[in-house]
Predict the structure.
Amino acid sequence: MTSSVSTPVSAVEVIVIGGGPAGLATAAELAHHGVRSVLVEPRTEVSHTRPRAKTTSPRTMELLRRWGIADAVRDRAPLAPGWNRRVVFCDRLDGAAITEFHGVFGLSDGPHELFAESGQQVAQPIVEEVLREHLRASGLVELRWGERATSVVELPDEVLVTLERADGTPAELRAPYVVGADGGWSVARSAIGAKLEGTSAPAANLNAVFRSRALRPAMGEALHYWVIGTETPGAVGPLDRDGLWWAGLAGVGDRNDPVLAAALIRELAGVPVPDLEVLSTDPWTPRMLLADRFASERVFLVGESAHLNPPFGGHGFNTCVGDAVNVGWKLAAVLQGWGGPNLLATYEVERRRIAEQTIASATTNLRASGHELARTADALQRTKAEEFYSLGLTLGYGYAGSPIVAGAEAEPPMDATTYVPSTRPGARLPHVWLDAHTALYDRLGRGLTVLHPGTGPAPAALERFRAAARTRAVPLEVVARDDDGLGADEVLLVRPDQHITWRGDLEGLVAELLDTATGYDRSRVTTG
């Protein structure tokens, strides 16, 4: 896991700067489409003492399923999805519950009708390690651990990236495209002249990881315990079932102090915790920031280089993966010759709006947290529900109005808590189980997919569409739907990211749809 450079990859097509979740996911999506990349990351190893994100949404798990690694993540995760789906609010851990939330975070103890993969409680370092191993096994990614990008220069036909190796010596890389996944202090963002705009919370919080086998909350096992009866409110939860815990302490200020963290955790507990051992502390300030642009012609920002939001609701990591998949398949399409001249411009059009929605939801959750927490059961249920029930946000976001989505159907207003499956163009293709283990998603191709009703001979219109795809070199899979519940007569054209780009009948399946879906229709391109 810690070798500095994997086998060099010839003919590199994309340089990915940053090896956190956004960068690893971008390289994984590129490899999924057979595109070679170099990934540059200063950290040689993943630190397990700073778990960062802990909530992987059902949608992100579906995307990991596309890459074949959802099971690997679950196998490594100490907490199974069905082990516990409960969040408790209490005065102290030695007292009684004030109120509880059940069935949180899209966790499921079995197959679910709304998603192909349950959500997963798992610390971010575990997901990063699985992704690192997956990228190494692909043979398509040169992993340059211990190296840092110091500058990015966009030239007419390529991008020049200057690196600093672990020994301090410089190096240069060149590629047609760069993806900046290098976080809040992004050199890629600086290179394209983009700026983060927004606000920050007035005080920093303090995260801690600690060990204690003696800590036993009086209200029984739960994923989260929100303690609101102490002078410094905080949340605590297990990272495994063997005494490893995380804690988030509200409004402590920028004090990286293990002694203070231990004292505040003991206050949350309400009883002596004789074996408490603080393993790490990490002050952080909630930020609500959005870049004024996400891309130039050859440089694209994903994850926290483009947007930062409070972690309440667990959306930061998951939004990063969504960015990566969106830009990854589009870069692959262009590099492989079937993506049109306007396809890459739709990355910003589609993802910046999703980032705005995510920041808005996370900000709502932030305002209902910390010292602003409600104190009664009714008020907590009213103000905190969006944090724990967010399928409307994580599954229900769509790309209606994008230049590569055909049709003018407007999206309904966003309801973060409620997801209603829809075949409206722009929406995520609704999940359907075909048998006990096979999802409709598993039948989709890596390019475009036509889903059509019936299992009889292919109609002439479908054969014409196949021929048009061959002429344009567009990878196309055709899948016959048989009583899958999506709409008896609908034909759907689905993108590589499992979002619907068009729906209609077979006679409407015309070659011009390929131009729209792949970014060749110049009349429909806008920038945002």
